[in-house]
Amino acid sequence: MRSSILGILTFYFLLSAPARAEESESLLIDKSLIVLEELQAMPDLAAPDWLLQRAEGIAILPEVIKAGAIVGGRGGTGVLLVRRQDGSWSNPLFIGLGAASVGWQFGVQAADVILVFTTRRSIEGITDGKLTLGADAAAVAGPVGRAATAATNVTLDAEVYSYSRAKGLFAGLSLEGSVIAIRDGANERFYGRDGVIPSDIIAPTAPLAPSPAPALMDAVARLSGSSVEPQAAPAPGEAETPAAVEPAPTEGAQSFPMEDPAPGAEPG
Question: Does residue 247 lie in a domain region?
Fold first, then answer.
């Protein structure tokens, strides 16, 4: 009975959050771009470069709200971009996150959240319908710092790494048990197609998403280094050192003319 109530409440928070927000999909993309660039510019919150280079998907959720008074929950909306087989990034999918809980709790908290997915399986769970963090995919707080070493989970055995930025009274966000699902209505409105499905949106042959989506796609590609070979994850405690610079090769032998002892005279 308790699990049934929680299930109903979870989907209430998941599906009612977009209606309460009353913001356009374009504005949500703009906010997602700001959150991504600002978090990655903060040394103590940024996801490491080597982790982003291995990401199979990146979800950005501006302002995940956690609220409660006996019955509570958390919810938010955002976008998900999926890395294609050629290394490029897909058009954004609109997603919702929701979870419910029963117990003594009070207050309202908020945070900006970025989720880095490291397996194709976790991405497929979302695009097939929904994914529950902690149940369908292991989720942990990710290592922070652009040059952070892989002190834990060096083999990337967690499927989802979370990053968040506090707002107001927020003191930490656990996403365990949160459900991530596709927002079909938002995708239909933004892409102007009734019944559009995730595979249509993220396919390599899909038309480029309308503005402002390309700006977000470019930022994800730049920050994830999709145009370069992935770096090896640094070993715990191993400092990153710049690559040695090879001296420029000398092109051919050089010769120098001998001094003429009698300038202007005929050679003997």
Answer: no
pTM: 0.72
Domain that holds residue 140: 2-223
pLDDT band at 109 (very low <50, low <70, confident <90, very high): confident
> In this structure, are residues 98 and 178 in contact, taking their beta carbons and an 8 Å threshold?
yes
* Integer Cα distance of 144 and 150 in angstroms: 10
CA angle (204, 207, 211) in 5-degree steps? 120
CA dist., res. 74 & res. 19, Å (int): 15
**Contact criterion met (CB below 8 Å) for 15 and 97:** no
CA distance 113 to 174: 11
Assigned domain for 232 exists: no
The pLDDT confidence band at residue 40, using thresholds 50, 70 and 90, is very high
How many domains does the chain contain in total?
1
Question: Is residue 90 within 8 Å of residue 84, measured between CB atoms?
Answer: yes
Q: What is the pLDDT of residues 198-223, one digit of tens each?
A: 999 999 999 999 999 999 999 999 99
Whose CA is closest to 175, among 73, 57, 253, 54? 73
Cα-based distances in Å from 194 to 51, 100, 200, 214 = 36, 30, 12, 22
- Which stretches does DSSP call E strand in the chain? 57-82, 93-117, 130-132, 139-141, 160-167, 179-182
Confirm whether 261 is domain-assigned.
Answer: no
For the record, the structure tokens of 158 come out as: 């967690």
Mean pLDDT, residues 165-169 taken together: 69
Beta strands in 118-216 (DSSP E): 130-132, 139-141, 160-167, 179-182
